[in-house]
Description:
By secondary structure, the protein is an alpha+beta fold. It is 52% helix and 11% strand.
Amino acid sequence: MSFSLLISFFLLIPILLLLRRRRKPSKRVPPGSLGIPIIGQSLDLLRAMRANTAEKWLEERIKNYGPISKLSLFGKPTVMLYGQAANKFVFSGGGNTIVNGQTQSIRMILGDRNLLELSGEDHRRVRSALVSFLRPESLKRYVGKMDEEVIRHLHMHWHGKQEVKVLPLMKTLTFNIICSLLFGLERGEQRDQALDCFQAMMDGIWSVPINMPFTRYNRSLKASARIQTMLKEIVHTKKMELKQKAASDRQDLISCLLGMVDEDDKQVMTEKEIIHNIMLVIVAGHDTSAILLTFIIRILANEPSIYAEVLQEQEEIAKSKLSGEPLTWEDLSKMKYTWRVAMETLRMVPPIFGGFRKAATDTEYDGYLIPKGWQIFWFSAMTHMENSIFPDPSKFDPSRFENQTSTPPYCFIPFGAGARTCPGYEFARIETLVAIHYLVTRFTWKLCSDNFFCRDPMPAPSQGLLVQICPRKLS
């Protein structure tokens, strides 16, 4: 953008403000302010997240305006909803009046044909294709390969070390698992380049969509373009291998999607849809799982009694194995307490702070009008910490999840809810349990840094969670 255009843009702001004041919005639109055009309350929210005060920021809005209010986030007018009824309204589609629709930054970075942008028949078709690979029956065969990736990672990055930064290492681990299991991308220069591009892309996922050279948004768009170019090359290679019968359509996610055809022998997903949804899978399976693993390690360092129970469960499984024998699906089914610890971690520190949907038509909710095309912003942290739902919510208590049916529906939503539940839920469960098994049976650790963390937009402990580690032997 030239300097003259930039000056013109800022000169337009007072005119836009004047025009907006002259409009008379419907009295039924929720209370609140849209703020400065384009920017709105985006910077306030991002600042609060980085200072780890986002929950207080939300509480203040709820105190001032109630559980439904209007604001402007990332360039679009938005309605913020809060509570169990609001979660149900959002995740059940509001009677088909609410559709998928992300912020401009997410849509432009991940692509407009990813699952978070699709609705109706397109959403069902693409979701069904992804679930066919990510369902438990399919993932059972990949437990051994995930086991292999975790052991290799620990040998490379943990053994022989006295201190490690957990979060960067967990991101490396989850990225390698994704590359190996989902894309069939072997270790080497191409995988290393993909990781660098991906980390640059993630910086602008939640950003004000101003495409200028000095912005995060601009840098993320460039990184996204490089990743999509790499993925195109991988897709074309795998397409040729399948055509020549040199590969199986079940060896990884990309091959699986390429091999899917309908009754007319037409490919179920277009190449563009495959690439855009692979981008989404990278984002969904990389940072979220890495953050969950990091915060479980943090919890186990701070809660000796929780650590002791996890260790006992995992040692019993380790003792039942022959030396070098990988974990199996049956072993994972025995890790019930460990997974309850993971669920409680997700309750207290959900990797996804919130998300967006879009009103497909003028929509009524709780006596207010949500105008067609407006964003709807939902967030998970508030119901997770509601005393009426989870008594003594600041206490870490895995027993809350001994009977998950006791939790009211649409209150615990780290993986979404209803028909909008994340299709990668089972993949994340396997990944988490395999990694924690080897970490607790092979190492002990204690924290070297404080417990502060911020969100940008996902939670990240200060110093990447620096820990002092010591190898341990199976007792």
